[in-house]
Amino acid sequence: MIADNLHIVYRVYGTGAGKGGATAALNRIIRRRPATGVREVHAVKGVSFTACRGESIGLIGSNGSGKSTLLKAVAGLLPAESGKVYTHGQPSLLGVNAAMMNDLTGEKNVVLGGLAMGMSREQIRERYDGIVDFSGIQEKGDFISLPMRTYSSGMAARLRFSIAAAKDHDVLMIDEALATGDRAFQKRSEARIRELRQEAGTVFLVSHNNKSIRDTCTRVLWLEKGELVMDGPTEEVVAAYEAHQ
Ligand SMILES: Nc1ncnc2c1ncn2[C@@H]1O[C@H](COP(=O)(O)OP(=O)(O)O)[C@@H](O)[C@H]1O
Ligand SMILES: [Mg+2]
Question: Which of 5, 93, 168, 217 is deepest in the core (most CB within 10 A)?
Fold first, then answer.
């Protein structure tokens, strides 16, 4: 997997392009006259790296530094402004982007999520119990047969992680999934990430928890303001990042 001088720009429409103060914005809202400006956010600026099979790569950096954007771009969910991403197979992003339907039960979402990732109905049937057990959703009652909207955000995140972790991935990307569960779930996740890594895929992990990064990653990319500050062995990069904070 290669990212070559990758630039990602968001275009936010109807912002008034930052012109006018708060009063102007308020008047626009009250008069329901849409603003016509476009504001550009240059979220990833010329990032290049090569990831090999078997590598487990952490992404660190302060809030808004471009970690989630970079993962989405590598997963093919955001178009590149310039530069390019080359991948073997389809990268899958665990976390925010997994398609989950709030009005459907957890059960139905396990099936839909599995199908969306390219699993067959037979595979889903075989792995269903494992997915539900892994998520820990049933620990506090029979939640799997209730609609997802009755789940806490942590429960929903755990179920998303469990569905995606049931499949072997070429390139697996996890955005802050480890931070959401309790200690037992984090332990299961870390163990599963290690297994997935051994199955020779490439793993990307975004986390605010430097311990998770240290425990699961062999290499770390440090982003700030959309630029790659450092790329190297985990301990070297995390230590530099901690010293910088
Ligand atoms: N959908 C979006 N539209 C416009 N700007 C966005 C969007 N998503 C993120 N951004 C901006 O892009 C930058 C990088 O955000 P993000 O990738 O979410 O950072 P991180 O994951 O490191 O916190 C930030 O300035 C953020 O405000
Ligand atoms: Mg993020």
Answer: 217
